[in-house]
Amino acid sequence: MEKKGILIVISGFSGAGKGTLVKELMRRHGEYALSVSMTTRNPRPGETEGVEYFFTDKAHFEETIAADGLVEYAVYCGNYYGTPRAYVEEQLEAGKHVILEIEIQGALKIKKKFPESLLVFVTPPSGEELVRRLQGRGTESAEVIEKRLARAVEESEGVEAYDYIVVNDDLGECAEEIHFLVEACRRAPVRRGAFINEIRRQLSGFVKGERE
Amino acid sequence: MEKKGILIVISGFSGAGKGTLVKELMRRHGEYALSVSMTTRNPRPGETEGVEYFFTDKAHFEETIAADGLVEYAVYCGNYYGTPRAYVEEQLEAGKHVILEIEIQGALKIKKKFPESLLVFVTPPSGEELVRRLQGRGTESAEVIEKRLARAVEESEGVEAYDYIVVNDDLGECAEEIHFLVEACRRAPVRRGAFINEIRRQLSGFVKGERE
Asked: Between 20 and 30 A from A154 (CA), which of A13, A70, A121, B122?
């Protein structure tokens, strides 16, 4: 199989536990690398530069776009979010599977630009559970819940664009599920090009040998 | 996940061990059913009616075509080969994953008619090994080898049409590999329709409830 890694997009409903899931996947398997997005939004309490995001300003973000330094970017709630190109390319070349934890706008751009990428959508085990998580513990403002809900509706409209939908019921099981989807992906013909060519070369050599 | 089974096409180079592989898969997992093809070719020594094939004549085969009783059929070396519809549909409805062991012409027709089907191509571990198997033990006539070779070349041209290529190096491992490709397939949005609809229904119910 090809040495080059696979580009994996992980999206999902807010409250589906994507972040924890990605951490669990990386803890279990060494061949994954997590891409850190760049954003112009302000850091929230507890967020660390280079861990959750690379925080920057609008001018620098736009310079990076102009220099083709992002594999995708999108605007969400008035802020830029983007995926720095260098890290992704280095890690893929090194054989790592690179995880982008991004939302649907970005996911669709990635699929268009990298048709061989793997798009996984993470969801809670049921619609009821999703609604429960969106509502929170009743401590959030109606405005926050309204925003989350609007986003969930938008996300639910886009799930068909993903290659797979995984249900995050049990954290470990779900991490293994993503891992085996990646393993499946590695068996697609598009990732077996070298092998197919070798087969064809041997067959044509055989034809030649037989006929000579 | 949907209760309905998945239609699986298994093709592969002659000598890749497809038959043994399918038997091993069925021995390990109870949720598979093997479709038996209908053919107008004569039974070979050791072949049993209803096991390797349903043997029939041209007139009956053509009647079956006319009655839309086959999900696909093809002509190979002057004989008809086809997949009886009734068995396939019954088993899928009962939640079994139905395996069709057919060649590329048939595989492409299946994919066109059933886009949700899973096409798996089985290959020996290398081009060298493939050539070795095509050559056999030196006991076959040049004509037989020539025919096998021509077929292998044709097959090698078609592999990109398959969803996955699996290498049959170790029988048990390869059977498990096919099993997990089927499991992956079950997580595609197209097979999660009911789940997606339930999510959407719950979200829209939530919107209504919130706004009232």
From this structure: A70
Beta pairing class for B7-12 and B97-101: parallel
Cα–Cα dist A93/A74, whole Å: 25
CA distance B197 to B195: 5
CB contact under 8 Å between B156 and A199, yes or no, is yes
Shortest distance between the Cα of A57 and any Cα of chain B, in A, equals 35
Do the beta carbons of residue B34 and residue B22 sit within 8 Å?
Answer: yes
Question: Which tokens is B142 given?
Answer: 């040049």
Q: In sequence order, what are the beta bridge partners of B39?
A: B55, B81
Closest by Cβ to A202, choosing from B127, B190, B207: B127
Write down the pTM of the prediction: 0.86
B165 close contact with A: CB closer than 8 A:
yes
How many residues appear in chain A? Answer: 212
Interface of B with A in 55-114 (CB under 8 A): none
**Which residue type sits at A146?**
E
Q: Do B195 and A165 touch (CB under 8 A)?
A: yes
**Predicted ipTM?**
0.81
Question: In chain A, which residues have their Cβ closer than 8 Å to the Cβ of B184?
Answer: 164, 180-181, 184
Joined tokens for residue A21: 């899931």
Q: Beta strand pairing status for A7-12 and A118-123?
A: parallel
Determine how many CB atoms are found less than 10 A away from the CB of residue B148.
18
Give the tens place of pLDDT for each residue, B162-201: 999 999 999 999 999 999 999 999 999 988 988 999 999 9
The separation between CA B209 and the C-alpha centre of its own chain, rounded to angstroms, equals 47
Option in A131, A184, A206 nearest B206 (CB):
A131
Cβ-based neighbours of B79, under 8 Å, separated by 6 or more: B39, B40, B41
Segment A80-109, tens digit of pLDDT: 999 999 999 999 999 999 999 998 889 999
Answer yes or no: are the C-beta atoms of A122 and A17 closer than 8 Å: yes
